[in-house]
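User: For my dataset I need records formatted as: sequence, then structure tokens, nothing else. Please produce one.
Assistant:
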Amino acid sequence: MPYHSAPLDLAFHALSDPTRRAVVSRLAEGEAPVSALAEPFDMTLPSFAQHLRVLEECGLIVSEKRGRSRWCRLEQARFAEVADWMETERRRMAERLDRLESYLDRTKG
């Protein structure tokens, strides 16, 4: 997997903000209307909507209009891409640490 891909970069940018991470955590429990998602935050609805727009533009959430409300839910495919990248990097670091451990054991005495 490439180190730099636009979708992955956008996803990590979106997740770098604590408000957006809180929204994602809430949506992990199930879909919700925008009004319920915005409730815990001390900001105007237009300001909160900007956070949702960032999450939606990078593909982490999708929203749809139902009657007079807009509902949001997580988009699992984008999270799978992020998780795959992180797992690849975790394995790479584990292998490097294993090689370092082997080297240190060989040069110990």
